[in-house]
């Protein structure tokens, strides 16, 4: 099958951590690889030493694991085409640039940073795009030897030839960019012996046997330059597919500065990785139909690269809680995944209500599991269940009989009626049914108004004056817990 790579370069990421745009590129590469029984490769591009963030490469691999799209080959997992970190492959790039120098496809450039700075200033002053003027391209071998013997600093530049061949992009169709007309010859090997993106990428894709590259559309105009490099080496290039931009819902760039699109934030806020994979493919293209709630397996089976359009994908993050609600319900239904949620919820309850005398019984697996099953589909995040609205679940009220008697003299009668109702209703409780039952229950009292019955039950069940409806509380607590709380209040 195909060998597809995704890269985590220091370039598109301010902190070196994975954001939604990077996740989407990785996801499409993963889906494409798995759809064709191929290999998904993570390569770390750390050749720009000024931008390297310690720990960034590990963090990116951690996030791919968290998202459920782990690479088959990577710095951590290894593989037969390593090393998978560019800073460990410097020898390879130097040899490759020597080959191009020998063939005359590249040359040494001795221009000083000051001269380049001046060129840039001049260009900007005359409102032109700064570009190198290819001055060192024309040095004779003698001049080069002379400069080398003087010990001058140099970089290697690649000669951009005119007359590029068109290439067929998997998404954008036929394309070509006459790079020599708009750019100066690019640096491929810097003075510190590190390659630039262009050289490292081409060399690695060749030696790692990469067959397909799916990357962001911002690289589309550089592809002709990369293809010129492949031609100079005499290598067959991989197939390229450029993914349209991922923008926010009003068509602006996703802001990385607020840190609000980094995966760490979503993980910390309790979003499920499946919900993120679902929303970033849902707003894009490449799939036969658009429905919410797709699993990774479904995304893989429905994917067709020919269906990716060139329209930008507009991401509306306000819809993320709704996507999460659907995936959370699926996790709750699945017995294996539910066990993990039970443990998470137990920890959340201890964390939020730890100082409020939580009864150990409400932390027991059966109790927590029942809460999850009853609130499935009603919550978009697990942590919603520890919000103040749900505090009645975790903090059993201590309400005295006297407090209840101030609301109605018929405490015992109302208590008995509710206990009777609960034993009759041991089947599945629904809010609608219970509301009807509570109306008819009130009619069986002698003098207590409906609002007082509700006030009394709310106090007995939650110890609070406000919160969700009484029927909803009874459904979420379940018959056994409701009876236990009413018994307790009547006998205290």
Describe the structure.
With about 500 residues, this protein is mainly alpha-helical. Helices cover about 45% and strands about 10% of the residues. The protein has helices at about 20-35, 55-65, 90-105, 115-125, 140-150, 180, 195-205, 225-235, 265-270, 275-280, 295-300, 320-335, 335-355, 365-375, 390-395, 400-405, 410-425, 430-445, 450-460, 470-490, and strands spanning about 5-10, 40-45, 105-110, 155-160, 165-170, 175, 185-190, 210-215, 240-245, 245-250, 315. Strand 5 (about 165-170) and strand 6 (about 175) form a beta hairpin. About 35% of the residues are buried. The model is unreliable at about 10-15 (pLDDT under 50).
Figure out the total of helices.
20
What class, by secondary structure content? Answer: mainly alpha
Distance between the termini: 71 Å
Mean pLDDT: 90
Radius of gyration: 32 Å
Strand % is 5-15%
- Low-pLDDT segments: 9-16
- DSSP E strands, number: 11
Task: Report the helical percentage.
Answer: 40-55%
**Major sheet size, sense and barrel closure:** 3 strands, antiparallel
Identify the overall geometry: elongated
Lateral strand order in the biggest sheet: 3-4-7
């Amino acid at each position: 099958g195909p060998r597809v790579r995704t890269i985590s370069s220091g370039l598109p990421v301010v902190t070196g951590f994975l954001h939604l745009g990077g996740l989407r590129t990785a996801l499409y590469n993963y889906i494409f690889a798995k759809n064709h029984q191929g290999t998904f490769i993570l390569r770390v591009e750390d050749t720009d030493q000024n931008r390297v963030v310690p720990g960034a490469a590990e963090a990116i691999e951690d996030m791919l694991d968290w998202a459920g799209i782990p690479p088959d080959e990577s710095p951590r997992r290894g593989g037969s085409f390593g090393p998978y970190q560019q800073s460990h492959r410097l020898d390879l790039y130097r040899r490759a640039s020597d080959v191009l120098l020998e063939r005359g496809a590249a040359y040494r450039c001795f221009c000083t940073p000051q001269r380049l700075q001046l060129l840039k200033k001049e260009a900007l002053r005359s409102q032109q795009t700064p570009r190198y003027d290819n001055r060192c391209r024309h040095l004779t071998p003698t001049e080069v030897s002379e400069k080398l013997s003087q010990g001058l600093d140099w970089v290697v530049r690649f000669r951009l030839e005119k007359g590029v061949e068109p290439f067929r992009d998997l998404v954008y169709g036929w394309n070509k960019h006459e790079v020599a007309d708009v750019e100066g010859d690019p640096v491929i090997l810097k003075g510190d012996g590190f390659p630039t993106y262009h050289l490292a990428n081409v060399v690695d894709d060749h030696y790692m046997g990469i067959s397909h590259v799916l990357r962001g559309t911002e690289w589309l105009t550089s592809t002709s330059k990369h293809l010129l490099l492949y031609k100079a080496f005499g290598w067959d290039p991989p197939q390229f597919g450029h993914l349209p931009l991922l923008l926010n819902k009003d068509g602006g760039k996703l802001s990385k500065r607020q840190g609000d699109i980094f995966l760490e934030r979503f993980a910390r806020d309790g979003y499920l990785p499946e919900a993120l994979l679902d929303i970033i493919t849902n707003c894009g293209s490449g799939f036969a139909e658009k429905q919410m709630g797709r699993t990774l397996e479904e995304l893989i089976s429905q994917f067709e690269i020919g269906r990716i359009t060139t329209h930008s994908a507009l991401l509306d993050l306000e819809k993320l809680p709704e996507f999460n609600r659907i995936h959370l319900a699926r996790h709750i239904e699945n017995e294996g995944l539910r066990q993990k949620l039970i443990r998470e919820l137990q920890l959340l309850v201890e964390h939020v209500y730890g100082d409020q005398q939580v009864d150990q019984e409400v932390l027991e697996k059966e109790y927590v599991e029942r809460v999850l099953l009853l609130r499935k589909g009603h919550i978009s995040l697990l942590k919603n269940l520890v919000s103040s609205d749900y505090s009645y679940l975790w903090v059993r009220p201590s309400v005295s009989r006297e407090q209840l008697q101030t609301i109605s003299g018929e405490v015992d009668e109302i208590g008995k009626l509710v206990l009777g109702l609960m034993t009759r209703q041991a089947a599945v409780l629904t809010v609608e049914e219970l509301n009807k039952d509570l109306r008819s229950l009130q009619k069986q009292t002698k003098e207590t108004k409906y609002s007082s019955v509700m006030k009394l039950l709310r106090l007995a069940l939650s110890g609070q004056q406000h919160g969700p409806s009484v029927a909803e509380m009874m459904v979420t607590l379940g018959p056994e817990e409701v009876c236990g709380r009413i018994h307790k209040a009547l006998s205290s």
